[in-house]
Amino acid sequence: GRGRSAGGVRRTHVGEGALAVCRSHTPGGCRLLDRERGLASGRASGAPLPPEGAHVMTSPVANSGAAASASLAARLAAACGGERHERAATLAAELLGAGAPSDAPESAGVLDAAQQCRVVALIQQDKFQQALDALEGLEGAYVLERAYCLYRLGDNAKALAALGKAQGAAEDKLRAQVLYRLGRSAEALAALRQHVRAAAGQPDAAELATNALACAAAAAAEGAAAEGEAHAEGGAALLAGAGVEPRDSFELAYNAACCLLAAGALNRAEEMLGLALKVGRAALELQD
After folding, report:
1. Which SUPFAM superfamilies match (predicted)?
2. Residue 163 · residue 175 · CB < 8 Å
3. Does 38 lie in the same domain as 80?
4. Does residue 1 belong to any structural domain of this protein?
5. Which CA distances in Å does 155 have to 120, 181, 182, 213, 250?
């Protein structure tokens, strides 16, 4: 769904080359692609997605343990493979309740995989509080999943604290989302910058560039940045670094216009807004 925030900056929710992307508007003026369905990549659009880097259930669970637990594990793996998330969460809870199927060292891995599957299945159903409850007592593990649930529940300060100093593309992209929500757009831009450059030629290049432009324009509006991406040339550099152009999407053109506006390039901003209108209308016509 689409909506407009007080400031007008547009962003898309963090998502996924070929993913389902849910758009929402946040303060600042630009459109940030805010992936309400997670940060995963390489999945077809449609079903909700867990964060990129989140653990997923794999077949080894179904290959070990005593007969009863092995049967549960096999059904769990099948449910996960078929994206039957409610069923998967139920089976994972049953397997965890049954305990380790044997004293073999690999039995602990069965329970670890079941825990992973349960958390991801709950996230897939947007049951973020239940996913957090499932992680109780597991501090230090599932950093990305924990932070993502807090983010989706609107507890941005705790989400940022949960991420801590965790490193990785998925962590940085989520960190940028959280920082943007907290009004710390210059820091959000810093978290995204290297990933924008690395995304050139990748399915999520346009989305990352859109988010970076949103952060740049918002940072300028906040007075947090007076140079670099906060001015027109910086916005153009972001697009070039990602290998995308304003005409590639409405969000890119709109956010590029916001960067030009922040730089005081009013005539160029007006031209870019005209392009955004043209691209947006064309996209809507394709949907009809």
Report:
1. TPR-like (SSF48452)
2. yes
3. no
4. no
5. 19, 10, 10, 24, 30
pLDDT in tens, 56-90: 443 344 444 455 566 776 777 776 776 677 777 77
Claim to verify: residue 69 and residue 181 sit in the same structural domain = no
Residue of 185, 188, 178 lying closest to 219 (CA atoms): 185
Written as six digits, the tokens of 62 are 């179904």
141: nearest Cα among 169, 108, 119, 174: 119
Confidence class of residue 26 from pLDDT cuts 50, 70 and 90?
Answer: very low
Burial of 5 (0-12, 13-18, 19+ CB in 10 A): middle
User: Which tens digit of pLDDT belongs to each residue from 222-277?
Assistant: 775 555 444 566 788 889 889 999 999 999 999 999 988 888 889 999 999 999 99
- Give the model's pLDDT for residue 106: 56
Give the CA angle between residues 36, 7, 217 to the nearest 5°. Answer: 85
First to last CA, the chain: 16
Domain that holds residue 103: 59-134
Same domain, yes or no, for 177 and 207? yes
pTM for the model: 0.71
Average pLDDT score over residue span 173-185: 94
Residue where a domain terminates, one of 77, 100, 134? 134
In the predicted model, what is the mean pLDDT of residues 279-286? Answer: 94
If asked whether residues 207 and 93 sit together in one domain, one would say no
N residues, the chain? 288
CA distance 206 to 203: 8
